[in-house]
């Protein structure tokens, strides 16, 4: 995937970036807007339904409270009680007249339409406004009179259509109020017209929405009130979605499906009589507003997507042109792109198109030129320091382009890399590159005066191999110690076993010497150096190669010392350093390293370590003096200064003559003496501030150090 993306042109990348950054967010924002709108609408609907249910519950609760109050007034009416105690009179008209007067009296002061009946418990007779005075067994609702009425609240509500011949809601109350069955002398029955309940629903405006259904369900699961009259008096049964929702009551709202239609349920529960008030609304009607928002959102998303698509195509055409011109006019940008390809990154399509020879040539070669002691950095600012790498590379590029198409890049200080193409399939590429390398070496010597190594990698067929072949060419640089500098080194020259073995020999000893110096073992590095010289003298016949290797070793040591924060000029002066390049023999070079360089390096590192110890000791003492009133420990200092506890202990002992704990005690007791002499601070406060567990422990240590208790010291210091 990365390779395919890298091969796309800049123009196509710009178009894809534009489409991704500007078009992709539109559907995402549209989707978020839609779901946010749906959530808001649903929340608004839930809130609205809860308000409606609250109104219905408030109205019905008030209705039932008034009905209960009427029943209590009737049940405690002296005339009614007297009539029930006396029983049916011989002349029924007298009882009927008395009870009718009582019923009309209470009906006149109530907004509830009801019919009253009284059961004479001991006489099995019933008085009814509708039937007059009749035997209980002939009363149409006689089966209701056998219902058990709890002592508290002393009444029972029977929903409409619960029993045969019962079309209205009925309230039964024992007389006297809250009496036990043994004490009961009668039962009051109030029949409430069902239309009264529907009037309550109409007063809350619930019938205005024909899609919504309202249910009131008692604590037994029977429907007391419903927008659909046919459902009144029916029981909720297990398996029904409404039953499950009514039973669990885990949430104020939910969903359920019936006849493949999804409904939204909202409910509240009355604290007055444990009734459940519920609304059932088809979700289709609730989501109409959300669907309008959805249609609008996706319509706008589609329009904006189309508009931006047009702008992206037109903008890509316009904006890619100035970038293309800038790309052509900035050689450094092309050089950076070539460096990325040399390091193994995917090829840039526009770069390849601008440098057409990368697609048309039959063979490619990588030439690496490494100046031994470049007089200038990659970007020299001082003219009299000689040619910079870039200036030299530009001169060499003119020479190469007269023969072959090429590109160059500066890969670090002193290293110039050329990618050269061979356009003629019949040309001998290896021979042509060797001849070109010879010319380049001569030009480097003539232009800069610096010795240089030049290596030519193996030929390859495709520019996508640049990274791999560049690494191979870099590996050839090390062979300059065996084959010599100021020569053209090709891959074919390094094929022999002896050359490879010698190169590995140089690398091995160089690594051992440099590692010993990094670890601070200068004497060990000197031993490795003497062993290397002995073996080199025995196996490498050319003394010049050995001397060249020593110069390279010195360069490596210089680089490592700089990374460690040291400057080679601090070890040896320029005059002595220049002696290395002019030594006539290996023995002289060995003597210079063993008597001049390694001793100077060892003295420098020892001095550096001593300075580091003094600096660290000073920082430790200062830290303890500033933080004596905190919980100090060797481990805390070890973690803070990244030094072992034993090393810290030795440094403090050498500097103060005390161990860590002893010196900390000295600091704290010194501060305690200052506070005792110049303040009225209590011993308890002093011991707490100095991190002692209690004042007794502090007094004991103070006396051990000073020879007297703190109180005595305070008195003496103030006399």
UniProtKB/TrEMBL annotation:
Family matches, as SUPFAM superfamilies: Homeodomain-like (SSF46689)
Entry-linked PROSITE patterns: HTH_ARAC_FAMILY_1, HTH_ARAC_FAMILY_2
UniProt keyword terms in alphabetical order: DNA-binding, Membrane, Transcription, Transcription regulation, Transmembrane, Transmembrane helix
Pfam families to which the protein is assigned, alphabetical: HTH_18 (PF12833)
Positions in coiled-coil regions: none
Protein name, entry field: AraC-like DNA-binding protein
Domain HTH araC/xylS-type intervals: 618-716
Protein origin, superkingdom: Bacteria
Transmembrane segments: 14-35, 296-316
């Amino acid at each position: 995937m990365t390779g395919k993306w890298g091969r796309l042109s800049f123009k196509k990348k710009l178009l894809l970036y534009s489409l991704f950054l500007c078009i992709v967010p539109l559907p995402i924002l549209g989707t978020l807007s839609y779901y946010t709108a749906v959530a808001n609408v649903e929340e608004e609907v839930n809130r609205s339904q809860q308000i409606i249910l609250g109104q219905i519950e408030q109205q019905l609760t008030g209705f039932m409270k008034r009905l209960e109050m009427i029943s209590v007034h009737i049940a405690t009416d002296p005339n009614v009680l007297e009539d029930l105690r006396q029983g049916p009179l011989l002349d029924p008209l007298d009882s009927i007249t008395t009870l009718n007067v009582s019923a009309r009296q209470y009906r006149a002061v109530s907004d509830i339409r009801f019919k009253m009946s009284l059961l004479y418990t001991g006489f099995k007779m019933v008085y009814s406004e509708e039937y007059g005075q009749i035997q209980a067994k002939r009363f149409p609702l006689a089966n209701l009179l056998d219902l058990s009425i709890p002592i508290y609240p002393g009444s029972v509500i029977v929903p409409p259509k619960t029993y045969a011949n019962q079309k209205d809601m009925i309230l039964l109350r024992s007389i006297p109020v809250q009496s036990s069955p043994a004490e009961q002398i009668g039962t009051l029955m109030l029949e409430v017209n069902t239309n009264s309940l529907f009037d309550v629903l109409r007063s809350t405006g619930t019938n205005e929405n024909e899609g919504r259904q309202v249910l009131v369900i008692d604590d037994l699961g029977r429907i007391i009130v419903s927008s659909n009259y046919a459902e009144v008096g029916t029981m909720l049964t297990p398996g029904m979605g409404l039953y499950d929702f009514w039973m669990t009551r885990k949430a104020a709202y939910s969903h359920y499906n019936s006849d493949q239609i999804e409904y939204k349920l909202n409910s509240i529960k009355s604290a007055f009589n444990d009734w459940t008030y519920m609304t059932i609304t088809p979700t289709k009607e609730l989501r109409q507003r959300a669907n309008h928002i959805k249609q609008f959102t996706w319509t706008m998303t589609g329009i904006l997507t189309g508009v931006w698509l047009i702008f992206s195509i037109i903008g890509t055409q316009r904006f890619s042109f100035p970038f293309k011109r800038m790309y052509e006019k900035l050689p450094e940008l092309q050089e950076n792109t070539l460096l990325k390809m040399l390091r193994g990154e995917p090829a840039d399509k526009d770069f390849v198109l601008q440098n057409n020879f990368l697609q048309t040539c039959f063979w490619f070669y990588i030439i690496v030129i490494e100046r031994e002691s470049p007089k200038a950095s990659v970007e020299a600012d001082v003219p009299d320091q000689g040619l910079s790498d870039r200036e030299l590379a530009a001169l060499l590029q003119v020479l190469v382009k007269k023969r072959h198409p090429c590109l160059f890049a500066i890969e670090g200080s002193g290293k110039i890399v050329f990618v050269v193409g061979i356009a003629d399939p019949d040309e001998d590429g290896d021979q042509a590159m060797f001849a070109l390398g010879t010319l380049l070496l001569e030009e480097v010597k003539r232009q800069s005066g610096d010795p240089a190594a030049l290596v030519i990698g193996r030929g390859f067929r495709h520019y996508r191999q640049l990274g791999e072949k560049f690494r191979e060419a870099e590996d050839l640089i090390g062979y300059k110690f065996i084959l010599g500098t100021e020569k053209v080194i090709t891959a074919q020259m390094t094929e022999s076993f002896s050359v490879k073995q010698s190169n590995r020999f140089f690398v091995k000893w160089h690594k051992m010497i440099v590692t010993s110096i990094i670890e601070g073992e200068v004497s060990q590095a000197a031993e490795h150096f003497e062993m290397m010289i002995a073996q080199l003298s025995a196996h490498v016949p050319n003394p010049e190669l050995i001397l060249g290797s020593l110069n390279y070793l010195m360069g490596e040591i210089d680089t490592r010392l700089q990374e460690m924060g040291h400057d080679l000029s601090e070890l040896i002066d320029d005059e002595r350093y220049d002696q290395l390049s002019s030594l006539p023999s290996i023995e002289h070079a060995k003597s210079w390293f063993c008597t001049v360089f390694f001793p100077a390096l060892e003295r420098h590192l020892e001095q550096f370590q001593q300075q580091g110890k003094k600096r660290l000791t000073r920082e430790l003492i200062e830290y303890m003096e500033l933080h004596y009133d905190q919980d100090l420990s060797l481990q805390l200092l070890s973690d803070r200064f990244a030094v072992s506890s034993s090393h810290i202990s030795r440094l403090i002992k050498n500097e103060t003559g005390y161990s860590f704990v002893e010196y900390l005690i000295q600091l704290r007791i010194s501060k305690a003496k200052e506070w005792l002499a110049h303040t009225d601070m209590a011993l308890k406060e002093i011991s707490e501030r100095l991190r002692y567990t209690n004042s007794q422990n502090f007094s004991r240590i103070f006396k051990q150090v000073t020879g007297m208790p703190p109180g005595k010291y305070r008195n003496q210091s103030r006399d």
